[in-house]
Structures are given as structure tokens and as C-alpha cells.
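Many introductory courses stop at the sequence. We go one step further.
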Amino acid sequence: MADSASIGAGPLAPLPGGPAGGFLVWDLSRVGYVSEEYLLPGVADVAEPIAVVDGLAREPGEGNPNGLVARPLDFEAKVLQAAVPFVTRVILYRPRDPKTFSGRVLMEPLHIGGGGHPVVFRTIHPFAIANGDVFVGVQHPNNFEEVRGKDPARYGALHAADASQLWGMIATAGRAVRQGRLAGLVDYDVRRQFLTGRSFTGMATSAFANFHHANARLDDGRNTFDGYLPLSCGYLIRGLDVPVIRLNTLGDYAMFGLHTRLPDSDEPGQQTRLYEVAGACHYYKYAPPAGEPPAPGRGAADGEGAGPPGTPEWLASFGPGSRANDLPVRLVASAALANLYRWVEDGVAPPHAPMFETTPDGKPVMDGQGNVLGGVRTPYVDVPVATYGAGEGQFWLHGYMRPFNGGELRALYGSREAYLARFRDSLDRAVSERWVLPGDAPLMLADAEAVSFD
């Protein structure tokens, strides 16, 4: 893969005007962060598409190691034109004080929806900011025309010959970060860099890992990326020389099924985990806690839901009394990222979780309350006050919860006090088993304390 971080003799300067002058850029000054944009030039190959994210058509069938594709894969990019110039946009969020920097960079290709959203950072940014992690978002070339149209004077230089140059853009951005080519990071000691994504960008993360990780090297031979965290994505990642944690939901299982699973491994060159989160759906709640900014480009009114607004049709498909699934997957995702950090930095292997229990034909098995058996367990499904489910067919992205009424709750637990005691026990187990971070446990406990038995 041809890529380049050759951006002049010195570090590349950020665009002027700060977040106020940018498109879909958070102002994180209130939490001690600086927000910057860069126009990053380089060269990247134009190649045959390898994934949905660079133009590969979806094909029917059970697929293969890339999840949604029926044709065989050799994990070799088929180059059509080498070293074609591009200019992409990079969004950088960094702690204002380099002394508070964790040494970690979390990079994410921006989702094409709405012009470019950081769907993982939008989900887990409280954890990343509390750590002092740096975040870097790389613009997908499919959005270049839209972004240029928002401010031609600011973004007019954006250009790409083909969507397949995304892979070279990610590699170039990764090298620029690791080699001090962005002015904002000159005084920052970058020790580790991780690539992540969710849904569409989870596919991008997985495809990059499969096809380009081995060639994405720094000048001294080190890997550009030290680990991968794809979320809500049906693509597998083949064995790499760095750890990989994949996190999927019940909704993702309903869509992608058995053929996207790989067993856990601690073997060198095969270090991988697959976590399937019980009760969760593809569109899950990403709302920031009170006092933190909403996702860029979204207002408070629509920034606190569990995915796009539901229609009467999809709500009706889940049955009377249903509402949007609000199981807080972001807390499990934060713990997964913390486990990936420890795996890479300290050699501490993450916990293993069973996969969902299934029937012989691959359907998930449910318990007496309608919640799936197996998977990563949280108190929401082990001490439930609702049935948590995910859609199928045209509604597979969405999920629902059907709260139990007071009579059902009393039949299950006897009293509110007994329910809370069981919830606390389950939560303690989830924390000790590293599925929930200790600092996030009070958020879950608050949900339990809000439950009424009336």
C-alpha cells in the first residue's frame, strides 16, 4: 500500500478559527481539550474495493472472513493505480496540557452519515477524556464534496480520486501522528495508537486491519497501530501481531449470524476476543452525561436518544408497550477499550465471555423473561426489569425494551429492596469481571434506583 505523510519540511499547522470555524467539530474547551482541524496531503493507491465502505457491492450468501462478501479473499489489495495524490481532513482533540496526556491516541475513520461523525468517540468520549487520550478522526472521501460545500474557502483543497484511497488516508494519518507531523502534537509523547470504528466505520477498521495493517509500518519498522477495536460490525479480523477486541450486539448477531464468529485466542499473532453484549441493539444510547457537549452536528433534543428517531412502524413491530432499547452499551464499550489498553500495554489478557446461546439453526435462546442467554452479562439482563430485544429484517438496526409492570416486578423480586440488593450483587460481579469500569458502576446503579414497583 502506497501512503505518504510527506507534508512539508515542518509540522503541519492547523486550520485557523478553531472549532467555531469548522464543520462538525466539537468545542471541548470546557473539559480541558483543544480542538483542531488539519488538511492532510499524501498519496495512496487506487485499488479494487475490499469492503462496503470503499464501494464493494453487498452480495447474498453466508459470506467468508470479511463478513458480507461472497467471493474468496486473499487479503491482498489489487492495486489499479499506485501513489495517487489526495488531501483529506483530520480532526484532532487533545488535552490542553501535554502533561495530562495518557500517551494513547484513538483514531477513527469518520462515519459518512451527516457529513462525518466520530461514532465511537461520540459513544465513549467520557472515558477517553477522563484518561487524557488524544482522539483523531479521518474524513472519508465520500464526504469530501459535502464538506467542501460547507466552506469552499476552508475545505476547497480536499480531493481524492477514489474511495479506496481511504486506506492510505488512515495509514498516512497514523504515521503523521506517530512521527510528530501535526503541530498540535509536537510536545506530546505518543506511545500507543489504536484504530476503532462502529458499524460502517467498524467495517473500515476491520478491513484496514485485514488488508493493510501488515504494511502500515513506521520508518523504524514498528506498527502504526498497536490494537484494533471494531464495534457493531460483521467483519472478522484475521490473526494479527497486535491484539483485537470485537464487540457486537444482539442486533448485530441477528444481521450477521454465526458466520462472523471466531473463537477467543491468546496465542501470539492470534490475540483476539469477541464480545456479544446481551440485550443490546445496533443503535444504542450514546448520550453524553450532563454538562458535556452533544455530538457535533446534533442538538440536545436529538443527541440523547438511542439512535435515530423511531417510527410507529418499527415500534409496533416490537409489540405493545415497547420503547427504544436504552441498555447502556457505551459503558461496556468503555470497559472493552480499557481492557484493550491493558492487553497492549501491560500484557494483561482481557476476560473471556461466552457467546450467545443458540439453537441448532442459529437462533438466540431466550430466558423466561425474554432476554438472551450467554454473551457479556450486565445487571440489565441478569436482574431485569424489562425484556431487551433487537429487531430483525428491515428493523435490525433498532431495538426495544418492554418494561415489566409492578405486578411482574413483585413476582420476580418480592420487593424493591430485594431487587436492588440483587442488582448490586450483579453489578459488583460485572465490575470484578471487568465488563464495567468501577467509575461507571454508579451510572448503572442510578438506573436501578429509578425503578418503581408501583
